[in-house]
Design a protein that fits this description.
About 35% of the residues lie in helices and about 15% in strands. It is of the alpha/beta class. The site of magnesium ion has 4 residues, from helix 11.
Length: about 400
Amino acid sequence: MPLRTLDSLGDLAGRRVVVRCDLNVPLQDGRITDDGRVRASVPTLNRLLDAGAKVTVISHLGRPDGAPDPKYSLRPVAVRLGELLDREVAFVDERPASAAPGNADVTVLENLRFDPRETSKDEGERRAYAGELARFGDVMVSDGFGVVHRKQASVYELAEVLPSAAGLLIAAELDVLERLTARPEHPYTVVLGGSKVSDKLAVIDALLPRVDTLLIGGGMLFTFLAAQGSAVGKSLLEADRIPAVQEYLRRADELGVRLVVPTDVVVASRFAADAEHETVAADAIESSSFGADGIGLDIGPRTAETFAAAIAGSRTVFWNGPMGVFEFPAFATGTKRVAEALTEVDGLSVVGGGDSAAAVRALGFSDDRFGHISTGGGASLEFLEGKQLPGLTVLGREG
Ligand code: ADP
Ligand code: MG
């Protein structure tokens, strides 16, 4: 059975629709630093409003501890949404479970994760919470692509409790991911970076038989260097993953996949925007001026050129995870070079991941220079791994 689309919900005039969006945007001092996910939620909301529905938007933001925390309030997001929709948006300050359904055309409820049941491992608790959220709608639209890999109350159980369908964002995201999995054009290059190797190992495993080139940057590159026998100073390292990484290096070789580990890196004296830094050979990190205290915060310029050439010469590219700590301008060079190369791809280029998407925008690239900027990092990766995503299965998708 294919994914249920908005049409399956029938005539929505005068009906109440609760929409699970992913409005989990990066905030700094209460200001949104990248509103990409808010903008991505607009087409579905406009479609529903144009159809005459009354809409209640629900989302999480960050990782509050299952209790209200002003730092993670969705209020600034509700304000931004109002600007983008060019409509009045009512914001409900209370916890979603205790709030009363109102009568506004657009309502945004407070952070779903102010209630521990949203992410509870106990199905009964999630179901109870979903029941309370269901008071806000006659039907439910699921459009938070960034969370479809999570079995959470508002993503999974709520879609069971109410008649539900996928919104336009989820449909568009799936379309692109299907192009990446069903007969992608070759050469096919995947670029992986970001902070945690453990998050990305499964996708390497799944992609090895399918891609031509795998480029490794970001914090995870140091576990690869360690797996090749290099000392990495104080750089990010997941030592327990070294055996798995060694196995991937061996398999890549066996399968004829070009798996490229950086040959040079930018090493800093400490983890700070204004830290002293030097470029060194990847196998000589501890011979920088900072010795064993050096921290690798970006790929080096030679590596960046190698990556750029491989990317620009590909017909299909998927990129997840910044190449370095791009939040510090001194360590954003590798990420910028990779982003630039993606804009030169003659074929399909996809950027996936909250931080990756924020990075390309922060570095000044407009969205239309890429084939697609996905709102979901983990969700895209799990899809590419061939996993069943609970948030899609519940909407009728098989496999
Ligand atoms: P995405 O959200 O795109 O999936 P991740 O969440 O996996 O990406 O990783 C993003 C984070 O990785 C960024 O905050 C960035 O600072 C960090 N990062 C990249 N390179 C390094 C590095 N060498 N050391 C520490 N952190 C890094
Ligand atoms: Mg991230």
